[in-house]
Amino acid sequence: MDQRYLKQTLNCFERTKEGIPQKCESAIVHREGHSVHVKLISIPHMVHGKVQGVIVIVEDITEFKETEALLRRSEKLTAVGELAAGVAHEIRNPLTSLKGFATLVYSSSEDDKSKEFLQIMLSEIDRINFIVSEFMLLAKPQEKEFGESDLISLLQHVVALLKSQAILKNIVIRTQYECDHFPILGEENQLKQVFVNVVKNAIEAMPDGGTIFVKVKENEKKEAVITFVDQGVGIPEHQLPRIGEPFYTLKENGTGLGLMVSFSIIDNHNGRMRLTSVEGEGTTVEVILPVYENKLVNV
Question: Are residues 193 and 97 in the same domain?
Answer without folding.
Answer: no
